[in-house]
Design goal:
The protein is an alpha+beta fold. 41% of the residues lie in helices and 16% in strands. The chain contains 15 helices and 12 strands. The relative contact order is 0.09.
Length: 417
């Protein structure tokens, strides 16, 4: 151990870890904070570095077994938003040190307007009108990480023997702003990381099976989002997302359908997909189905936009209004969707609920692509390529009218229908 009060030195296998006493901002709330550190090989002078360059962070002085458990758990994870350990050291006091690539801080340090679209009214009440672009990506990345970990737990009725990817030890996740780390990349966006687990909370007695553990992790995410919204007025979509995450019956498939995670582009594309289903239904049964359902209640928005349209008839009328009138006004999608959302905060929640019941469209393609790690979607992407080739071939042969601008989501609808 080093004698300098400003740092701790640990040497294992001729590799020196210098752990400084300046913590990563926000991590002092950890039971075991992260500190900045340097690493270099004592046997290779060429790898020696300027010790003033603190290019690593260290989860410092955990009890040895906890450190081993954390290191092994994180080493097995292959996910872009889960910190990958660089190395492991132990000292003479039976403590463990885990080094990771450098990060800048925790989400505790980010202001509210980095995570949410914020508006302050005349009464100085702060309204959260949804996630900001950076906040939405952060939450999507956390959702992706939780889903990844849930899928890596041992599955009931299966054996890990012979598997190329061993299952993760069943440690529950604990999500909080001070436990989620970030790095700000050159584009100005934030890349987040889960970098610590609670090894002392191993398989609580309240969890009788794997599904209980998965639900616990989703519930923790719901509580985390609720915590960062505290003291403000969230919109209907944010409240609905939290309600879904804290349910006893929460499933990843349901989370993919939460409009708070979609953004204006995916919402408008969803409307186009509904219209595609209607236009390619030769029997007219789908139009008949929507014509019997109640409208979304967008009349106030219609009036504000100065449109001459009667939306009071049915859900079919609402969908065609969104597709053929509102979307084609020429206003940027984000601003346009905001106008609709302000007018009718639950409009997309209602539309999604009705369309899901009809089972016309599979899970949102774009959102699934942005949330699931690419390695999990290789089979699906191969299927998409094959479907596009088949669609093209049938068009060339004259069997179908081929549209050269056919999108991936269009092919996805064909797959589902």
């Amino acid at each position: 151990m080093g004698k300098n009060r400003e740092e701790v030195e640990v040497v294992n296998n001729n590799v020196k870890l210098i752990c400084y006493r300046d913590p990563v901002p926000g991590t002092t709330k950890f039971n075991y904070p992260f500190y900045y550190a340097s690493v270099y090989d004592l046997l290779n002078p060429k790898t020696a570095i300027d010790q003033s360059i603190r290019q690593y962070v260290v989860l410092r002085r955990k009890p040895l077994q906890d450190a081993y458990d954390t290191f092994n758990f994180l080493s097995l994870c292959e996910h872009p938003n889960i910190l990958k350990p660089y190395g492991f050291w132990e000292d003479n006091d039976n403590k463990g040190f885990i080094a990771f690539p450098r990060v800048e801080g925790t989400l505790d340090n980010l202001p509210t307007d980095e995570l949410f679209s914020v508006e302050i009214d005349a009464n100085k009440v702060t309204w959260l009108k949804g996630f900001s672009p950076s906040g939405m990506q952060i939450i999507r990345d956390i959702v992706s990480s939780v889903h990844y970990v849930n899928e890596r737990y041992p599955q009931a009725g299966t054996s890990s023997s012979g598997s190329a990817i061993p299952p993760l030890t069943m440690f529950p996740l604990e999500l909080a702003s001070h436990k989620i780390l970030y790095e700000k990349i050159p584009t100005g966006e934030y890349k987040i990381f889960l970098g610590d687990i609670s090894t002392t909370n191993h398989w609580p007695k309240t969890m009788k099976k794997i599904e209980d553990l998965k639900r616990h992790n989703w519930n923790c995410l719901g509580k985390y989002i609720s915590t960062i919204m505290a003291g403000h007025k969230p919109n209907t979509e944010l409240i609905h997302l939290v309600d879904v995450l804290i349910k006893e019956t929460v499933r990843f498939e349901d989370i993919l359908w939460e409009p708070a995670l979609w953004g204006s582009k995916i919402k408008m594309r969803f409307v186009r997909e509904i219209v595609w289903c209607l236009e390619n239904d030769k029997t007219g049964g789908r139009k008949s189905t929507l014509s019997k359902l109640s409208p979304l209640g967008l009349q106030d928005c219609i009036t504000k936009l100065g449109l001459n349209y009667n939306e009071a008839k049915s859900l079919l009328s609402s969908v065609m209004l969104l597709r053929n009138k509102i979307e084609q006004i020429g206003v940027a999608k984000a601003l346009l969707e905001k106008l609709v959302l302000d007018s009718k905060p639950a409009y997309m929640i209602k539309l999604i609920e009705e369309i899901r019941k009809l089972n016309w469209i599979g899970e949102p393609y774009e959102l699934r692509e942005s949330i699931r790690p690419q390695s999990q979607d290789q089979d699906f992407m191969r299927l998409m390529v094959v479907l596009r080739l088949i669609w093209w071939f049938l068009g060339v042969c004259g069997v179908l009218t081929w549209n050269s601008c056919l999108s991936d989501s269009d092919v996805y609808i064909v797959c589902q229908t």
